[in-house]
Write a structure and sequence with these properties.
about 750 residues; alpha+beta; TIM Barrel; Immunoglobulin-like; 3 domains; binds (2R,3S,4R,5S)-2-(hydroxymethyl)piperidine-3,4,5-triol
């Protein structure tokens, strides 16, 4: 996967077997972009690719229009990657090539999560230095090309080598100038309880963007963009992915210029951001991971899944099978005592569930969401022997114990707030906005991080805690830190996230055996930044099986199933009131990190048996669900959205599980078939429905079937009218395929 330097053509070529990225130092010293796409042959000259681009008055006459890290002020009126306010108040900047270095491996980004390598041979890194000769600002652009992933990791370091103080106003992680604008942009958008639905639009002249300015990556938009050709499908065609390894305010934007080319940029949102650089100081941007696929959206997802599962997630839990858990939230909410929890845990253990998680309500005197955040000591009214006493009893019941925390928050009614009102984010002398009756702690302050580290370490070391769910239930308003001088308030949001990462780093390092799951009012901070610390995330507070189809489908575009926590909950569902079969709820939740969110002591006997069978099935196929290749077959965003189908396939393609879901039943079906993908055409698979059934569909699909047949002709979905009539709404079918 060499990075080649063509000294004559002044071209840098980053390549592996699947992708190439070409940069060229242009005549005026700027760093031009030539190409990002399918792998091109090594040891060839590509300098000519920069020719023939004339941009009229828009740019300096005759200058090629595609740039790697554009700045404003020199005639390029498209969105910039870097804006720096100089000591004289101007934003003048002219970046010229000052050198480059190629190293084996991949350096860390100080204070920020990023993809990594375990051996130098896994990647090469290019660092190009661009310098503004007049003012002394340098942009160090980092590009890592992986040997075995169709991805390039990019970031930038801005260094002030001048004599005066400068202020960075925009510093994108990556900017990419594409040769044409004939793309459809897919974004993952929604709100609380319907996160990450796929929303598509064609690129048009002008700017189109998604962003967050809430202090977290947010429920509304995920820090991810996908560009695809109109003809691209899951299996065929070109797709480009832009993913930001960051959990705070972000901007992902495409601008189409009048000449029909597109610029895409992704990074920290420039609004409400400035960073002051004293002489000699530097600023590091988060990492952006750019993926190219010429084999459809599915192959792009494959790249993100494997890279994020194997080289972003870290720690012992990266590769371990994740436990099937029961979370107390929807089963008990705030209404519990030790006896009730032990009963729930005991009932869960009897069903084969491996981990019991005590959610919100165990600390201070918290009987509702109106108090006690920040007071991380057990409520002795409910837990007379504290967390340790409860955890010991849970473990004695044969199930591990996990705990919910919300470290970044403080309730007005809490000892912590009474002792440290200045630790809450807000502008002194002005009202603070409450959200869910709580304030946000100022994690931009090292003393606040220090305090949380100490109190939470005490909780986690004082009891046998195997798992932590780290929640975050409101966004940031009135961004301000009393610990920062006025001229540095623009640094607050980023410093806050650096504080979150620092606390995560400390706790995950001190407690490597604890499995961390991130959460933010459901899926409000489901981003690659947190996956570096917590290898799984609570996907959404919406646990309804039908609602989960688009949520899990959209999430899977950029994130592996090993990150997607999915639970079976009680009916009527607590978010939408829908009553779906227990089998359907499990058939959806299997495709992720599986668990339950209900009171197991309240299950009727028949359901108890069914749950035990579900747990057994998931455990038997856990490796497949958590580490297999996820293949999307029929999408909830296609047609009328009534059908969804997907499957997981083992790496050697010897086993697979297929899920097919029909929201509303329809009369008089035709002989619909579901064509599978990702199998080995030469393998004969035993096909069986799960749970075992003797209906016509199960019978006609059962038996040895060639992988070729299953992919070309597919599985039968509907048979007799009578059986269809009896089936009702919200049905799911699972098929298990095992090589003979
Ligand atoms: C929001 C989370 O998404 C829920 O699962 C639950 O933990 C509540 N917070 C508790 O307050």
């Amino acid at each position: 996967m060499p990075i080649e330097w063509d000294a004559e053509g002044r071209v840098l070529h980053l390549r592996n077997d699947r992708i190439s990225c070409l940069l060229r130092i242009q005549e005026d010293g700027s760093l031009g972009h030539l190409y990002f796409g399918r792998s091109l042959a090594p040891a060839r000259s590509y300098a000519h690719l920069s020719g023939g681009e004339f941009r009229g008055f828009g740019n300096r006459l005759g200058e090629p229009g595609r740039l790697e890290y554009p700045v404003p002020g020199g005639g390029d009126y498209r969105v910039p990657a870097l804006v720096v306010e100089q000591p004289d108040g101007s934003a003048a900047l002219r970046l010229e090539y000052a050198g480059h270095e190629i190293t084996r491996g991949k350096p860390e980004i100080p204070g920020l999560p990023a993809t990594y390598v375990e051996a130098d041979g896994e990647a090469d890194t290019l660092e190009v230095t661009l310098r503004d000769e007049v003012g002394g600002v340098e942009a160090h652009l980092l590009y890592t090309v992986f040997a075995d992933h169709a991805a390039i990791a990019r970031s930038a370091r801005i260094v002030n080598r001048g004599d005066g103080v400068v202020r960075v106003r925009t510093a994108m992680s990556a900017s990419l100038d594409l040769g044409d604008a004939d793309w459809v942009m897919d974004q993952l958008s929604g709100t609380w309880a319907r996160e990450r639905h796929v929303v598509s639009r064609r690129l048009v002249p002008g700017r189109q963007s998604i962003s967050s300015r809430r202090g977290s990556s947010g429920h509304e938009h995920n820090p991810f963009l996908l560009l695809r050709r109109t003809s691209t499908t899951e299996e065929h065609g070109e797709a480009l992915g832009f993913s930001l390894v960051y959990s705070g305010n972000f901007l992902a934007e495409a601008e189409v210029d009048p000449f029909g080319s597109a610029r895409v940029r992704i990074g920290i949102h420039p609004e409400e951001f400035t960073w002051t650089l004293e002489p000699g100081a530097e600023f590091a941007t988060p990492e952006a991971v750019l993926v190219y696929s010429d084999a459809g959206i599915g192959a792009l997802s494959d790249t993100y899944h494997r890279l994020y599962r194997e080289r972003l997630a870290r720690g012992p839990w990266r590769d371990r099978p994740r436990p099937v858990l029961l979370n107390s939230w929807e089963g008990a909410y705030f209404d519990f005592d030790e006896e009730r929890l032990v009963q729930m845990a005991t009932a869960a253990a009897a069903l084969g569930i491996e981990l019991f998680v005590l959610d919100d309500g165990w600390f201070g005197h918290r009987d509702a969401d109106t108090s006690s955040l920040g007071d991380w000591f057990a409520d002795r009214r409910k837990l007379p022997d504290g967390i340790a006493g409860l955890a010991r009893r849970v473990e004695a019941a044969g199930i591990r114990f996990g705990l919910w925390i919300e470290p970044e928050m403080v309730s007005r009614d809490s000892d912590l707030f009474r002792a440290h009102p200045d630790w809450a984010v807000g502008v002194p002398g002005r009202p603070r906005t409450e959200g869910r009756n709580q304030y946000v702690l100022d994690l931009s302050r090292p003393d606040v991080v220090e305090h949380l580290d100490a109190v939470l370490s005490k909780v986690l070391s004082g009891a046998p805690v195997s798992y932590v769910k780290w929640d975050m239930n409101r966004v940031i308003t009135e961004p301000y830190s009393v610990a920062l001088p006025p001229e540095r308030q623009g640094e607050f949001f980023h410093r806050y996230i650096l504080g979150v990462y620092e606390l995560y780093r400390r706790l995950t390092t001190r407690f490597p055996e604890i499995l961390f799951e991130s959460c933010a009012g459901g899926g409000g901070r489901f981003d690659p930044g947190l996956l570096a610390f917590a290898p799984q995330a609570w996907t959404s507070d919406d646990t309804d099986a039908v609602e989960r189809l688009p949520i899990q489908w959209g999430t899977s575009i950029a994130y592996p199933l090993s990150a997607i926590a999915a639970h079976v909950s009680a009916v009527p569902n607590h978010q939408v009131g829908r009553v779906t079969p227990l089998s359907t709820r499990a058939a959806v939740a299997f495709f992720g990190v599986f668990g339950y969110e209900l009171d197991p002591t309240a299950l009727p006997d028949a359901e108890r048996d069914e749950v035990a069978r579900q747990v057994g099935f998931y455990v038997a196929h856990r490796e497949l669900f958590q580490r297999g290749r996820f293949v999307r077959l029929v999408g909830p965003f296609d047609g009328d959205g009534n059908e969804t189908a997907w499957m997981v396939v083992s790496p050697e393609r010897r086993s697979a599980v297929v899920g097919h879901y029909r929201v509303l039943n329809r009369p008089s079906p035709g002989p619909a078939r579901l064509r599978l993908r990702g199998l080995d055409p030469a393998i004969t698979y035993d096909v069986a429905a799960w749970p075992a059934s003797d209906d016509t569909v199960a019978r006609l699909n059962r038996g040895p079937r060639g992988g070729d047949e299953l992919m070309a002709a597919g599985l039968l979905l509907d048979a007799t009218r009578g059986e269809v009539t009896a089936r009702g709404d919200f049905q799911a079918r699972l098929f298990v395929l095992e090589a003979r």
